[in-house]
Amino acid sequence: MADATRIPIIAANWKMYKTLPETEQFITEIAPLISQANAKILIAVPFTAIHLAAEKAQGTTLIIGAQNMNDATEGAFTGEVSAKMLRDAGAQFVLLGHSERRQYFGETNDFINRKVKRALAEGLQPLLCIGETREQRDAQETEDTLATQLNECLSDIEPSQIQHIIIAYEPVWAIGTGITATPALAQEAHHFCREYISQQWGPETASRIPLLYGGSVRPETAAQILAQNDIDGLLVGGASLDANSFAAIVNSVDQPVGSDEKH
Ligand code: PGA
Question: Is 24 tagged catalytic?
C-alpha cells in the first residue's frame, strides 16, 4: 500500500463456520498473537456468534461484524436480521454483496445498494464486496463489471459517506478455489477501482477509501499482495478459520516482500 493515511485492514470472513465454543477458542488463541499488529483487524462471524465474539473481543484489537443483513429497519421478514439488531448484538461492520450472497441467494446490486444505505444510516460500517466471474474476465468484461457494481451498489451515496465504506475486490474465480490472483492482476483491478471512484466521487474520496483484496489469500501470499500500491488490506475466508494462519496473515502487514521468516 502506498498511501500512509490509509491504515491496513485485515478482515476475516468465517462464512457458515464456528459454533460458540469454537468462537471463544479462536478469540482466546488469536488475541496474544495479534496484540502488536499494525492493522485494523475485522472478523465477520455468523449471526449466532456476534454477541459472544463481541464480548470476548473486549480489551483486544479485534473488531466484530456480520456477514449480511436486511435492508429494512424492521418488519414481517421471517428469517431476516436488521442493521439495528446487528449493532445491538455488538457488530461494528457488515459484509455486503459477497459473491456467495449474489450467486446462491440472488442478491442484486440494487438490493445491495439499499443495504449499504441502511447500514450507514444505522452506524454500521459496510464492507462492500465486488468482483468478476471467470466468464466475465475471459470475455474482457472485468472493468465493465467492476464499474457497474461500484456504480449501482454505491448509487445515491454522498462522497462524505462513501469514504466510510470499505470495498473488497474479490474475483469470484479466486474465492475458495486456491487460485489467488497474482499481485499484478490484483493491483490492476484495484487501480481501476480507485480511478473509477475518483472519477465518480472525487480524488479525495478515492485516496481515503480502503480497498481490500480477497480470494484464496494464504499466509504465504499475503505480504506480496499487500505490497501493491492500491491494495490496503485483505479479506480472508478459509485461512481465517485457524487462529495461527490468520495471525500469520495479520502479521504479514509489516513483513518485507520475499521474506518467509514468519511463515
Ligand atoms: P477464501 O474466501 O479466502 O476462502 O477464498 C474469501 C472470501 O470469500 O471472502
Answer: no
Indicate which residue of 100, 107, 132, 170 is catalytic: 170
* Ligand 1 probe mutation, 9, 16, 170, most atoms within 8 A of CB: 170
List residues bridging with 126 in a β-sheet.
94
pLDDT at 262: 35
170 is catalytic: yes
What integer pLDDT is reported at residue 160 of this predicted model? 86
**Helix-, strand-, coil-residue percentages of the chain, each rounded to 5:** 45, 15, 40
Q: How far apart are the C-alpha atoms of 137 and 214, rounded to whole Å?
A: 16
pTM above 0.90, yes or no: yes
Q: Using an 8 Å Cβ cutoff, are 52 and 20 in contact? A: yes
Helix (H) / strand (E) element for 129: namely: strand 125-130
Q: Whose CA is nearest to atom 2 of ligand 1?
A: 237
Q: List pLDDT tens digits, range 12-49.
A: 999 999 999 999 999 999 999 999 999 999 999 999 99
